[in-house]
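Homework-ish question, so no full write-ups if that breaks the rules, but can someone show me the predicted structure for this set?
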Amino acid sequence: MDWSSLFGIRRIKPRDFVLRFKEHSERKIPNSRRIEELSFLVVDTETTGLDPKRDFILSFGSIEVRRLTIPVQSAKEYYLKTKKLGKEAIKVHEIVNQSLTVSRERMVREFLADAEGKILVGHHLGFDLSMMEKAGRSFGLRKINSPRLDTMDLAIRLDMGPHFDPRMVEYKRYSLDKLCSRFRIPLEDRHTAAGDALLTAQLLIRLLKSARGAGILTYADLMG
Amino acid sequence: MAKNVIVNRVKEFLQKYPPFSFLKEETLFAVATGVEVMYFEEGEYLFRKGDPARPHFFIVKEGAISLNEEREGQATTVEYCDEGDVFGVLALLGKRPYILHAQANENSLVYAIPVQVFEAILKENSRVATYFAAGFASGQVVVRSDLSSSKKARTLFNDPTKDTGLLMFSGQSGLKFSSPVISCLKGTSVGEAARTMSEKSIGSIVVRNEQNYALGIVTDKDLRKRLIAKGLPYTTKVEYIMSSPVITIAQQVDFAQAYLKMVKNRVHHLLITEDGSVASPMVGLISNHDILLSQGNSPAVIINTLQHSLEVKEIAQLRQQSEALLKYYLENEVSIDFVAGIITEINDVIVQRAMSMAQSIHKEEFPEMQDVGFCFLGLGSEGRGEQLLRTDLDNAIIFEDVPKALEQTASNYFHLIARDVIDVLLACGFHTCPAEMMANNPRWCQPLSVWKGYFSKWIREPDQPSLMMATVFFDFRPVAGKSELAEALTSHIYGEIEKHKLFLNFLAKNALLNPPPLGFFRNFLVEKSGEHRDKFDIKLRAMMPLADMGRLLVLSHRAVGINNTFKRYEMLATLEPKQEALFLEAGQAYEIFMRIRAIEGLETQSSGRYIQPEKLGKLQRQLLKNAFLPIEELQKMIRVRFQLDYFGS
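A: Not a homework solution, just the prediction itself:
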């Protein structure tokens, strides 16, 4: 008996690219790998709202960080082709050129391909990844089980020490805007997915460099 | 999905700065896509001296990077790079290990540009190539940058569509040009061609093929640069050294077009052919000299009119007209040598006119003075023949020694003359000297014996006031009257210096007093307070040090008769072949400063002395930076040569 179908949850056969990602993400990054040798994929999504159940992704941006540098070439930006993209959304997000849009499938596929073997990074990363998981559900994606690093948590940890409970801080002080201004990163292209991803990537490099000063040198130090 | 907001953002940034600003949209896009964004914390090294060249060079996005070298175990900053500065280009140009350390001076964001993408561009885009060749990128300083290519580059980077103010030449009739064209057949030996040029006293000869179409042109410069300097024999064939192709123009072309074509192609000659193409019979040859001199508003015409003018009002108006000429020359990058020569000539003619007008007014009152010789001297920048703008007057009068009984009369007479001459100059828009170093000041209107006494005192007692006088008075130049008097004074001065050699050491010390421009690569050392707050004093910080050092070195060589700072350096280059490169650069740097100051002065209707660094474009700032380098080197040389480190104050 298939319990899931009994409860109305249809089991979906994962697509090839989802399987491939799953297989890859089970390979672990060695604990001793040094921070400057790690590869990161920094992501950001622009969505219709903040509720992962009701809302959905309008655009997705990502950029890599390797050897503590950001190759501009790796910058990706997708606008989703969607029926729900009405006149209002176009007005708000200035997504005018429909020819630049891609299908949800392509977005998920390319994201998973890019994420292979990398640490995923974002500001409030959990939200972006739940939105991505939701977008990938119909392709059989259940959980994005890559290693995750939230730039907000990292900033708090560097300020407060490793044993501090991030939930105790005033989140406003650790917003992307606040952190960028603290680290003198000019707020360019704020609130576009790619722009925010680039800001987050710049923030990540600054945080990683100051993390070295705090004795955080390896993958294990970083994730521990 | 390549066209995204990030690549565009990088592209927009690069676009603002040379050499990226010379790239076409698509090329720039490819470059921007290849960029890697890097972040360096304060104190962190980007690369170290001796490291193998990275596969990329850098441009500062935010922050500041200092390029350092180690001298005697101490890290010395050679150059600071801030936003938009390009550095680490050895990777691109030579693939040699780095010759400097690059260290983040503050937290900095840097774009790394892959060499691979850029190499192709370097080959295709001559402006980009010139940018690097001229040493505009930072940290290229150790490889001596040639300021003449800087100058060339500057012209090249001017907006080609800029209105060159050709209107002032409007209404001119057709062009005058030399005809028939003197030419020689290809295969002719250079020696024979040179003989023809010499016989016809022409500076260039056209090389033609069997169909009588022009193949190229050989100029005096080609002979010098491509034959003699290379040590080639006179039997070399003309086509081997000619400049080719010849830029041609049709017969019915007007002045403005012809001039613009020369400027655009950077040539000094245009060949006029029947239909304007190369494959068409030759009609005539026109040189830039023909163009500049054959026009109604030419300096020759102004000078000629001045020489016959009897009205102060008219003289003043002609001087005003020369200002337009100056502006035109500056905008069209006419050589400063030429410009300064013309403007000095105009100023001199005004003095000469004013002088003869004054003499005829006072002639009857002072009959006994008519046989007393005198000489009107220009001092300071006027004496050096470098006064492009109508700034402060510095001048003096020397007259022959007269018998005791006539002394007072002579003094009265020449004072009147001086007063009248200076009135004319003031009417022409010049300003009085705040220190009153002018001929109408009785102290500076004296017989030769008194003048000799002044100089003897300054040389024998080189205290601060004496040295200050020396910097102004030692650059005297006879402008009107008997130049023998000035020559007598010069030989007196050399005699005194010979006897009191220590004077030169004092003068050297004084020449190094002005704040050196070192240390303001990052920020121009600007005035801290007062009317000119936040402005850069180009006269005090850049021109005076060069002028003072040039004067000192010329005096130490006992060289006579050359007053122009840039010509002094040219002469020093021939006197000291070992330092040739440095001296030539110093001269070129001075010309650059003169030009920048004159342009600033014309634009702001001021002395041009105070420059707002932010108003200068990136390229102008880099040009200035490059031009400061010889100052520092000269200062070092002088410190050693005049043993200033052992020379107490």
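Now go work out the reasoning yourself. Hint: Chain A touches chain B through 30 residues (CB under 8 Å).
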